[in-house]
Amino acid sequence: MKHLSLIAFAVVCTTSFATQAQQNSEPHRVGAQLNAGGASYKSSKQDGDGVMSLYLYYNYQFNETWALEIGLNGGTEIDDWNCKELNNKKFICDRNDELLFGIGADELNYNNLVVATKGQFQLTKNSYLYGKIGGQYYDYEIAKNNSKILNQDGLGMFAEGGWQYDWDNGFAFNAGIQYLTMGDLDISSLNVGMSYRF
Q1: Residue 33's closest CA among 114, 140, 109?
Q2: CA-based angle 37:128:170, to the nearest 5?
Q3: Which tens digits make up the pLDDT trace of 71-123?
Q4: Alpha carbon distance 52, 36 (integer Å)
């Protein structure tokens, strides 16, 4: 029985190292992920402050644990919809036009240039937990009826953590949580994405 356990352990270790060797020989990764969550301005939290963004990134894997990532993120507010069922499975939906952050705004647009370090921990042959921490240059605009109320730019923090499944063909799926600080504006969101390693 001990020999069988040792053989199984050796096979698991070998496949794990083979996956790591494959990743080390393919150090480049490009990816895209969709983020959806909430925003707060000067610590305001209210219903209707939802945001959505698209994050495109490239990372270079230095070894089996560490990578450097550069990314572009672009986001905007999203409107809530209140839907009610009438009869015979018919629905009526109204847009929830609550003003943003309690300051009378109805538009938010933001962009981020991200530089981060990514660390990953292997759970199984293809499954990883990952974390990213870094900085970002941000630029955001808050407006009402297309009239600018506020435009800010500067440097802020970027953090993300989650789970990634890496197939042997180079494609990967990830799901996680992302956090951005942009001066008085903070954004936390859930994300799903796909990437390709080469």
Answers
A1: 114
A2: 95
A3: 999 999 986 556 677 777 777 766 555 678 878 788 999 999 999 999 999 99
A4: 4
Burial 165-182 (b: 16+ CB within 10 A, else e): ebeeeeebebebebebbb
**CA 169/CA 162 separation, integer angstroms:** 21
pTM tops 0.70, yes or no: yes
- Residue 35 burial (CB count, 10 A): 23
Q: Which two tokens stand for residue 140?
A: 């955001």
Report the distance separating Cα 45 and Cα 69, nearest Å: 31
CB 111 within 8 A of CB 74: yes
Number of CB atoms found within 10 A of residue 15's CB = 13
Per-residue model confidence as pLDDT tens digits over 153-166: 999 999 999 999 99
Give the CA count within 13 Å in the CB-facing half-sphere of 109: 8
Q: Where are the strands (E) in the chain, listed by range?
A: 28-41, 50-61, 66-78, 80-85, 91-96, 107-122, 127-144, 147-166, 171-182, 185-197
What residues have CB less than 8 Å from 113, skipping those under 6 apart? 70, 71, 72, 136, 137
Express as a percent the part of the chain with pLDDT over 90.
66
Q: What is the pLDDT of residue 16?
A: 41
